[in-house]
Structure formats: structure tokens, C-alpha cells
Amino acid sequence: MEKKKKIAFVSMLAAIFLTAFKLVVGLTTGSLGILSEALHSGLDLLATGITFLAVKYSDKPADEGHNYGHGKIENYSALVETLLLFLTCIWIIYEAIRRLVTGNVEIEVSFWSYLVVIIAIIVDFNRSKVLYKTAKEYNSQALEADALHFSTDIWSSIVVLIGLICSSFKFYYADAVAGLIVSLIVLGISYKLGKKSFDALIDKAPEGLKDEIELIVKEIPEVIVYHDIKVRESGPYKFVDLNIHVNKSITIEEAHEISHKVEEAITSRIKNVKVMVHTEPDTD
Fold it and tell me: How far is the CA of 245 from the CAs of 196, 209, 218, in angstroms?
């Protein structure tokens, strides 16, 4: 899992660079759009730091105190990132409305204003692409949260860029409006991340997983009846419990072989899944 840690660490370095660059340019020009992006990137930095720690510790094997492993650390990481994004929205909305109401929206648009936003778009595009690929490969919710976050950053940066272009033609209100649009984008991403991480933390069954398991078990002729399929997620891992009925005339060893066959069938077709099969004699 060293690849996961490396990708998370590189993402954190990118966040440090973008936060510092945006903050300097935002304070110099007075652009709310760029300042909101600087704050957003600052929270990105904190979020990627949390993600790095989550990825580092979530892969630790199960122990006496954590029988199901440490996977939920990734879910907590995603939830914290959601709360940070929500706080970002509050500040951006407040500052944008204040500027629109007071009329204090004049900013200085310079070469650096455009440069920082264009660089941010390029960096966020590349790291979101890499994060999505790695998240899919390792089924990592923490990395997926970061990838979704940074892909949204691309759109918010584009909005800020449009605001800067309008401001260069003396349409200064466009910058404050850009800040408001950024906040709406961030609110949308916060909801998606929050719902997914909260569902995992309360052990909500992953959508479609139970149906997929039923299709697999139906293909095994030795299983007469199956019931009480229970599924849940913990970070990148899925846990499955189910009961199966087998012919009551077979030996214990044969029943064990059938339960093992069920486990292998599920684990071979679903990534990062741990299966517990309870076998019972069928009584018609």
C-alpha cells in the first residue's frame, strides 16, 4: 500500500504550494475570488494531511483492540474534510455578500492573478486524475474524497478566472459573484462527501453489494438456501456475513468445503471483501 501513501503525500505537497501562492497573490490584489481559493486550498492542505494520516493507518491489520481493522479511519477522514469544506462556504458567502452590499469590490487584476489560477487548474487536474486512479485501484474512500474535492477545485478556479477577466474590464462585482458560485460548488461537494462517509460510519449497506452477492451465491449448486446477508463498509474494506443451507446428509468436512467455496466465489469477484459464512443443514 506504499503507493497510496506516496500519492497522498504528493497531493499534500501540491496543496502547500497552491495555498502559499494563492494567499500571496490574493492579499496583493485584494481579489475575493483568489482569497477564497487560498482559503479553500488551505483547507485542502489540512484535508490532505488528514488523508495522508488516514491512508497510513487505515491499512494496519486487525488487532486485539480493533477486530475489524482500522479502515474506518478513512471514513472519519472524509467526514472531517466535509466539515472543513462547509466552513469554507460560510466564510466565502459572508465575504461575497459583504462586498456586494457595501460596494467595496474594487480589486487589482495583474499578471500574477491569472497565473496563479491557471497553475491551480493544471495542478488540480493532474492530481485529481492520479487520485481517482489510485482510489479506484485500492478502493480508498479517503483518496476518492480528495480526488472528488480537487476535481471540484478545477471548476471553482475556472469561475474565479472568469471573475478576473470581467474585473479587468471594470466589472468588479463579477469577482464577488465568482466567490458565491465557488461556495455553491463547494456546498454540493460537501454534501456528497458527507453523505458517503456518514453512511459508512453508521454501517449502511453499500448500494448494490447485497444484490451482487446474491447473484454469486445463486451460481453455487451445493447451496440449497441462503439468507440473512449482511454487508457493511469500513474504509477500503467490505465485510459480508451470510447463512447458507446445505444437504443435511453430507459430512462436516464437505459442508466446510462448500462454505469455503462460497467465500472464494465472493472474494474472487469483489475486491477488498472479507466474508463470514455460517453453514446450516437444510431441514426442508
Answer: 34, 21, 12
How far apart, in whole angstroms, are the C-alpha atoms of residue 196 and residue 210?
17
CATH of 2-201, one of 2.60.120.20, 3.30.300.30, 1.10.10.10, 1.20.1510.10: 1.20.1510.10
Using alpha carbons, select from 126, 73, 103 the residue that is nearest to residue 233: 73
Q: Could you state, in order of their start, the residue ranges of all structural domains in the chain?
A: 2-201, 209-281
What's the pLDDT score for residue 142?
67
Q: Given pLDDT bands bounded at 50, 70 and 90, which one contains residue 227?
A: confident
Looking at the chain, the number of H-run helices and the number of E-run strands are 8, 3
- With beta carbons less than 8 A apart as the criterion, state whether 123 and 255 touch: no
Do 2-201 and 209-281 show the same overall fold?
no
| CATH code given to domain 209-281 | 3.30.70.1350
Question: 280 pairs with which residues across the strands?
Answer: 245
pTM of structure: 0.56
Q: What H or E segment, with its residue span, contains residue 273?
A: strand 273-281
In this prediction, residue 248 carries a pLDDT of 86
Q: What are phi and psi of 224, to 5 degrees?
A: -80, -45
Q: Which residue has the cell 456528497?
A: 192
Q: Please list, in sequence order, all residues whose beta carbon lies within 8 angstroms of the beta carbon of residue 38, skipping any fewer than 6 positions away.
A: 19, 22, 23, 25, 26
CB atoms within 10 A of CB 28: 13
pLDDT tens track for 17-48? 777 887 787 777 776 667 767 776 777 777 77
